[in-house]
Predict the 3D structure of the following.
Amino acid sequence: MNKVVHFEIAGGNIEELTKFYADLFGWQIEKVPMEHEGPDYYMVRTVEVDENFMPKEAGAINGGMFQNDGAPLPPTVGIDVDSIDDKSKEIEAACGE
């Protein structure tokens, strides 16, 4: 079974977005320095992490947040697979994109 390992949330006002999730769910949200042009990125911790920044709780995931100035985007979910090429072929065979 392939596990969900990461999520991303985008919104129009990053200050309001980070405050909303931190206040409502108690998530720890921290701005990450980026080496490229583009929106700031924020790491979201929903659970404590180990020295490799991996969740300490089995089955738990952490994620990220960024400001989106365009149309609203649905949350993005990252799934761990053995081979992205093989999984992409399976997705296409099932009429996915």
